[in-house]
Write a structure and sequence with these properties.
alpha+beta
């Protein structure tokens, strides 16, 4: 018999970017830009259909050689204001995590404050809440690098 467990986790991360909300939002909406900062070097496939009901799929190789598949369905999109998506993470055929993420883009005097909140269910010890938070933090750091790229640079 397999040991079964459920761990619930919620975290919020904040970032400030010195660009207007529309520009920060665009880095989430544009498939080419999103692949650069989100998919990462281990990715073997990234697809983005950025619309309500649309899917995003990122497949990568894990450290053990297994395929990791992160798949999201967009539930709500308000341009330059918010994105809500539901996601799953599979390691091979095994469901590791199911989550709901909200990303808010708030205008500030200097640009944009981004607030990302994720609520997740971690199943059977296949992923830990701290790993997800660290990985998401890394994504937001990579987003900052993407936002510093000169316009039109590939």
């Amino acid at each position: 018999m397999t040991d079964r467990s459920v761990t619930h986790g919620t975290f919020s991360l904040e970032r400030s970017y010195q660009l207007p909300p529309a520009r920060v939002f665009a880095a989430w909406a544009d498939p080419t830009a999103k692949a650069r900062w989100f998919a990462g070097p281990a990715s073997v496939e990234h697809h983005l259909d950025f619309r309500v009901g649309g899917r995003e799929v990122n497949r990568a190789r894990g450290d053990g050689g297994e395929t990791l598949t992160f798949e999201s369905v967009y539930q709500d999109i308000v341009p330059a204001e918010r994105i809500v998506y539901a996601s799953t993470l599979h390691a091979g055929e095994t469901l590791a995590t199911a989550s709901l993420t909200t990303v808010e883009f708030r205008p500030t005097a200097d640009g944009t404050e981004l607030l990302l909140t994720e609520q997740a269910t971690f199943l059977d010890g296949h992923e830990e809440p701290a790993w997800r938070e660290r990985g998401t933090d890394d994504w937001l750091t990579a987003l900052g690098v993407e936002l510093r790229r000169p316009a039109g640079a590939e």
